[in-house]
Amino acid sequence: MKAKHHFWSSLALGGLCYYLTTSPAAFSGAMVGGFLIDADHVADQLWSIYQGAPHTQTPPPLSAHPNGWRAFLTRYVRRRKLVRMPLLLHAYEWLSLLLLLTLLAPTPFRIGLLAGYALHLALDLYRHHNEFLSPLFYSLLYRLAHGFRRDQLIKTGYR
C-alpha cells in the first residue's frame, strides 16, 4: 500500500484514538504505528542497492538535469527492484510483543501504537495478500528462513 494511504488511514485512526482517550500520546502512537513503520523500506532499498539490483525505471537523459540536486537524484536515488525484503518492522512477532506489552502495561501511546500497527499490517495484507507465496509472509522468522530473498517470498508475476 502506498505511504499516502497509510498516512491518511493513520490520521483517521489517530483522531479516533484521541477522541476516545483525549490523549495526544494515543494520536502519536497511532501515527507511529500506522505510518512511520514504513521507514523500514529504506533499509530494503539500501540492501538492494548494495546487492546491485537494477533500477525500476529508465532514467531521463542526464542532459535534462546536468547539475545540481536533480542530477544527483537521477543518478543515485532512483528506486530499484528489491532483491531482498527484510521489512524488519512489518512482522507478526512485533505485533504480538506489542499486544503483550500493551496488555501488561497499557498507556495511551501503546494503545495508539498497537492500533496503528495492527491497521498497517491489516491494510498491507488486504492490498498485497495475492502477491505472497505464503500467508506467513509477514512473519520475520519466515522471511529470515528464506534469506529475505524476494524470489522465494513473492509470486513470479509480482516480482
Measured by DSSP, the beta-strand proportion falls in: under 5%
Strand tally, please? 0
What's the rounded overall pLDDT mean? 87
What percent of the residues sit in helical stretches (DSSP H or I)? 55-70%
Number of helices: 7
Order of SSEs: HHHHHHH
The major sheet is characterized as: none
**Rounded to an integer, what's the Rg over CA atoms?**
18 Å
Rough outline:
globular
Overall SS class: mainly alpha
Assembly classification? single chain
Which stretches are poorly predicted, pLDDT < 50 over at least 5 residues? none
Count up the domains.
1
Task: Report how far the terminal alpha carbons are from each other.
Answer: 16 Å
Could you give a short description of this structure?
The chain is an all-alpha fold.
Describe it:
- This protein has 7 helices and no strands.
- It has helices at residues 3-21, 24-34, 40-50, 68-76, 92-104, 108-128, 140-145.
- It has one domain (3-55, 83-158).
- The protein starts with a helix and ends in a 14-residue tail after the last helix.
- The protein has 159 residues and is an all-alpha fold.
- Helix 2 packs parallel to helix 6 and helix 5 (92-104) runs antiparallel to helix 6 (108-128).
- The longest helix has 21 residues, at 108-128.
- The mean pLDDT is 87.
